Amino acid sequence: MSIDSLRDLMPAYARDISLNLSSLASETVLNDQQKWGCFLASAHAVGVAPVVRAIEAAAAEKLSPEALNAARAAAAIMGMNNIYYRSLHLMKNQEYTTLPARLRMNILANPGVEKMDFELWSTAVSAINGCGACLDAHEGELRKHGVPAQQVQTALRIGAVVHAASRIAASETALQG
Prior knowledge:
- The chain has helices at residues 3-9, 15-25, 32-46, 49-60, 65-90, 115-129, 132-144, 149-176.
- By secondary structure, the protein is an all-alpha fold.
């Protein structure tokens, strides 16, 4: 599978999503590692099988084994962190924010790829998972290291489109089964 095969899964009502997949796959604001890592981390964050398979196949042509693993790790660690930190943010009792998280997050210190690439991927996944606290933290790190707003926006756009494609693929599968 590839991005084109994923686009073929999109029904007529999701033409905009199909077109966005195509334009984002051709996007040049991010380098290939940044772009395909965002695609892959986003696909794993949502976890819809045909989308994961299609994006894994496309990313395998562009990413090193280390980058493939790091993108998957971004989805995994943000799957945990986004829930935890979003909960702290939403709770009225601020005492919980003063307590240590006591969750292992070793991958953040050494993700196996350029740290800012991992931050971009974590930003896309945090958008999918709806964690404002994590979005602010990752965006702040990116901007502190000189990553332009257009690159952050592109990561967010990739996350949004992969999420939409995943929801459509899941809905279409439900209609068939």
